[in-house]
Specification:
Largest sheet: 7 strands, parallel
Radius of gyration: 26 Å
Strand content: 5-15%
Structural class: alpha/beta
Helix content: 40-55%
Number of strands: 18
Strand order of the largest sheet: 3-4-2-5-6-1-7
Number of helices: 23
Shape: globular
Length: 610
């Protein structure tokens, strides 16, 4: 079998990977060929051995059965199956919830377990927890547990349900930009509009995302569908090939309204939802792939496990706080096909301005309970692009009024188009988003980074260290909640490893190790950090300036910790320590710290007892 460059690289390095890791994720973008890689790994290294392949959806089972069945003896486990595993086959395909007795028998016998869409693995859930526990307690010592995903991050703040508890390493196989250069994927071209009359401010997001029951009526009431149709009618005419599009909607009511609007334009369209019978769904998707159906409107079924390389327009009609959902759905349009030069991404949900382009997404193996809150700002990513006023990080919002009395509302980058005219409507009626929406009114991480590396050496050189080094206990005991977070950052900067970490797993292991150490120090000293609603970078900046929020005792003691570390480490080492320390401080602020801590990496009661 002919392998792509990244696949061959993983095959070549696989012996050393399994020598070093037992449970790991192979991360590669949607459309890169992860299923092909899995089949080749089985063929090269596990032929004739016992293998379990797990996924969470029946449609994925069908696809995996077809792909793996060409070269291997495969059994697709049904709900009612009984008896011993691997009776007359080598590969067992199943969801995590099917025929539990057969799976329980299979796990100790398996030489390899593969999990497709591994970001779905819940270390604390009913299905996967049982399998993970069986693998740890009864699995073969030489067996591997491998996850496949494009987005190794879970949408949860539960500290007992984090992805790093299921996998001990991430193997970063390939990224989108490299695969575009190799013509494995096509480049995305974004058309983003900000829908002014979509009111999301009053919607409760304590669940971690916009609840469908509130979001769907807000979408229908707004002009979002009108913006999507207007954009689509223009973009479909610009393609060199016949348009084939996928529309992502939040629920059936939005999908039905969208479907009606598309058909009113005399465009052949259909709809699939989770309730669509599998046979009917497969027939519709086959007609979509052949081009008989131009626009496929979907609710919750195309973001994972669906592959149509001819799809050249993605229309996003679902505002979300989930970076995973955004990345997975857009990635479905990036597969290459003959004559396909690009994929148009029409976003009327403000997900592009919230998360950024999918090729720039960063993933975390750990998150805290309120990590989604930053995405409540629908211009979150644009705000992060500000670099001291440089035009490369400035984005404009077109306010030109169109003939139908609505605004153009296209978002585009400054200094890219002639005279900064809008590439959609051709007018200049734009505003600087950062100024219009005051995105620069609060300190961003770029500003804190500059301040930290400028101020610490300067202040430290003027300090009398014989005084400040002795004041640590007093600084902590008299600190208020804001000062505690500042001191936690400084302590983390002093303690965290400066070494280059081995991928995401190594990065987070270093962070959690230091976080546990700080928690141990605080509970021993009977110091409690109360959970905070948000992590304010301004408090750390204020400490660097000994300003209004952080008092002199705490500010100077914290800087003394940082300054000592500055002198004994290289600039590159200090940069690595800074990035980790920010995460430690953020987690302590959001999670809090007390003698009741019961986390996977730190139990306060056990620590105090010891």
């Amino acid at each position: 079998m002919h392998l792509r460059n990244w696949q061959q690289n993983i095959i070549d390095s696989f012996p050393s990977i399994i020598n070093e890791h037992r449970r790991f994720i192979l991360k590669a973008p949607t459309g890169a060929g992860k299923t092909v890689l899995a089949s080749e790994i089985v063929e090269r290294f596990y032929k004739g051995k016992k293998i379990i392949v797990l996924c969470h959806r029946l449609v994925l089972l069908e696809q995996l059965a077809e792909a793996l069945g060409k070269r291997h003896a495969v059994c697709k486990l049904s709900v009612s199956d009984k008896g011993p595993a691997f009776a007359d086959y080598d590969i067992l395909l199943s969801t995590s919830m099917r025929a539990k007795d057969v799976l329980a028998d299979a796990v100790p016998k398996a030489d390899l377990i593969i999990v497709d869409e591994a970001h779905r693995v819940s270390p604390n859930g009913r299905g996967y927890k049982r399998i993970l526990d069986d693998f740890d307690e009864h699995g073969k010592a030489e067996a591997q547990f491998i996850g496949l995903t494009a987005s190794p991050e879970r949408r949860t703040g539960d500290q007992r349900d984090q992805l790093n508890l299921a996998f001990d390493a991430i193997i970063d196989c390939a990224n989108i930009e490299d695969l575009i250069k190799e013509d494995v994927l096509v480049p995305p071209e974004y058309r983003s509009h900000f829908v002014h009359d979509l009111d999301l401010d009053g919607i409760d997001i304590s669940s971690g995302d916009f609840p469908v029951a509130k979001l769907a009526p807000a979408i229908i009431k707004s002009s979002m569908i009108d913006y999507a149709i207007w954009s689509y009618k223009e973009e479909r005419l610009k393609l060199s090939k016949k348009p084939v599009s996928a529309w992502f909607c939040v629920d059936v009511s939005v999908a039905e309204a969208t479907l009606r609007s598309i058909r009113q334009c005399n465009i052949e369209a259909a709809m699939v939802t989770a309730a669509t019978p599998i046979r009917e769904r497969m027939q519709l998707l086959a007609r979509h792939e052949s081009g008989d159906i131009e626009a496929m409107v979907s609710v919750g079924v195309l973001a994972e496990g669906w592959d149509n390389p001819h799809c050249n327009i993605i229309v996003h009609l679902r505002p979300t706080l989930s970076k995973v959902l955004w990345g997975q759905s857009v990635g479905r349009g990036l597969r290459s096909a003959p004559g396909k030069e690009k994929c148009i991404i029409i976003d009327v949900s403000s997900n592009w301005s919230t998360f950024g382009p999918v090729e720039k997404l960063q993933w975390n193996l750990w998150s805290h309970p309120r990590s989604y809150m930053q995405f409540r700002n629908r211009f979150n990513w644009i705000g992060q692009q500000q670099h001291g006023g440089e035009s490369s990080g400035i984005y404009l919002l077109c306010k030109n009024e169109l003939p139908n009395r609505t605004r153009c509302s296209h978002i585009y980058q400054k200094d890219v188009f002639e005279d900064d005219t809008c590439p959609i409507c051709g007018s200049y009626a734009a505003v600087d988003i950062s100024k219009e929406l005051r995105l620069d009114s609060s300190l961003n991480e770029n500003g804190l980074h500059r301040l930290f590396f400028e101020r610490v050496p300067k202040v430290y050189d003027e300090m009398n260290l014989s005084i400040w080094n002795r004041l640590g206990a007093n600084a902590w005991k008299s600190a208020n909640s804001k000062e505690q977070v500042f001191l936690a950052f400084c302590m983390a900067f002093a303690e965290v490893s400066s070494e280059v970490t081995n991928g995401e797993s190594g990065f987070w292991n270093a962070i959690l190790s230091v976080e546990a150490g700080i928690r141990a120090y605080l509970v021993e000293k009977r110091i409690q950090i109360v959970k905070q609603e948000d992590f304010d970078l301004g408090h750390i900046a204020d400490g660097m300036l000994a300003g209004k929020e952080i008092r002199t005792l705490q500010a100077h003691y914290g800087i003394s910790l940082c300054g000592t570390t500055f002198q004994t480490h290289s600039p590159a080492e200090n940069e690595r320590k800074y990035q980790k320390a920010i995460k430690v401080a953020e987690r302590l602020a959001i999670l809090g710290c007390s003698s009741r801590d019961d986390l996977p990496y730190f139990n306060a009661a056990r620590h105090l007892a010891a």
